[in-house]
């Protein structure tokens, strides 16, 4: 059986959608990756474009956010529940966010990728900038994509 994934732009101000985003991020970052609670939630949540991914069988299996400042977007908090990884969910998330970036007139996208996800982002022409660094005790690299229209 083939699973269909559905991407939707979520509204942080709607409590049910906020709860869904928080549930996925809580499980992936706080429980699984031991990110301290105080580092997970910040003021960017209210200002960001949020994405929720669900399937035909399961609601709310992945989320990400993108904060746009003029022509630069910052993608972050990409989280997929463990049992749904390696099934194309990350691809759908990133492609949806890239489309949203273009709609918003973005010319450059910046993200801090966990070192284990570098190759995934490179498939979309993101380039590593600088040296590896620790974020919440997890190794990351800053990556940048320039969008040419």
Give a quick precis of the structure.
The protein is of the alpha+beta class and 149 residues long.
Description:
By secondary structure, the chain is an alpha+beta fold. It has a single domain, classed as Aminopeptidase (3-Layer(aba) Sandwich), CATH 3.40.630.30. The chain is built from five helices and seven strands. It has a seven-stranded mixed β-sheet with strand order 1-2-3-4-5-7-6, with helices on both faces. A hairpin with a 2-residue loop joins strand 6 and strand 7. The longest helix is centred in the first third of the chain and has 18 residues, at 15-32. It is globular, with a radius of gyration of 15 Å. The termini are far apart. The model has no long low-confidence stretch (mean pLDDT 93).
Query: How does CATH name the architecture?
Result: 3-Layer(aba) Sandwich
Order of helices and strands: EHHHEEEHEHEE
Q: Give the tally of β-strands.
A: 7
Strand order of the largest sheet: 1-2-3-4-5-7-6
* Rough outline: globular
| CATH homologous superfamily grouping | Gcn5-related N-acetyltransferase (GNAT)
Q: Which fold name corresponds to the CATH topology?
A: Aminopeptidase
Strand content: 35-45%
CATH classification class: Alpha Beta
* Structural class determined from secondary elements: alpha+beta
- What is the radius of gyration computed over CA atoms, rounded to a whole number of angstroms? 15 Å
Overall mean confidence score, pLDDT: 93
- Share of residues in helices: 25-40%
* Tally of contiguous helical segments: 5
Q: Strand count, sense and closure of the main sheet?
A: 7 strands, mixed
Unreliable residue stretches: none
Number of individual domains: 1
Could you tell me how far the N terminus lies from the C terminus, measured between alpha carbons in angstroms?
38 Å
